[in-house]
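anyone seen this seq b4? input:
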Amino acid sequence: MIIIAGLGNPGSKYQGNRHNIGFMAVDAIQRLPGFGPWSKKFKAEISEGEIGGEKVLLMKPQTFMNLSGEAVGEAMRFYKLTPADITTIYDELDLPPGRARIKTGGGHGGHNGVKSLDAHCGKEYRRLRLGIGHPGSKEQVHNHVLGDFAKSDQVWLTPLLDALADNAAMLVKAEDSQLMNKLALAVGVKGEPDGDKPAKPAKATGAAKSPDGADSAKPQNPPQEPYPSGPRRARPNLPASGPMADMLKKMFGGKGE
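predicted toks r here
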């Protein structure tokens, strides 16, 4: 058996929040044929089913985000599983909306739900991060993640979640590269960045500060000097005809500069 746990906050108040994209993802998977209705166990809503010949336990922890690890850790110990048998799905500020990344292990990146899983389950579980974008400053992060997706977000959100459900067998079989390609195609992303690095932010047009206080108005690459090897010599005024011109032609074989 493997566990696929979506992270979020319980209750209708938070249902449409960006922070709840993990819940939305497992809801999409649960709608696949073969999964039972949601029930309550392990401080979570759970649904059991099968994907690609593998038994799967879907989980939506009801402990609120900051204590998500309590629910997932309880289920992991009950079924005598290891962190390698867990895949968690959650929101990622440092990825543009609609982008996805998956890896095993790593840091929590300031995500309180992931901190809790690290504490209760260990760190070597698989992490599928779904980008929600960064609002631009630390002061706006709280309202951004606990704000609902806008109607305009549905242009990428619905295709992303549908593609994840349609290709859930790749998630279960750890066919990560293929899955990332499917998700990228679903949201119309061409040329996914290499590796697990977030996309570079766009250059600033004013003197705004980045969230860490760095000056974001500086260009990434300074303009190149016209003559990198040093200042160009001024071209001397050479006579075109006369005795001096004849002498110069004899000295330099009649070649120009």
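Strands lie at 2-6, 39-41, 44-51, 54-61, 86-92, 100-104, 126-131. Residues 2-186 form a domain with the Rossmann fold fold (CATH 3.40.50.1470). kinda curious what u guys think
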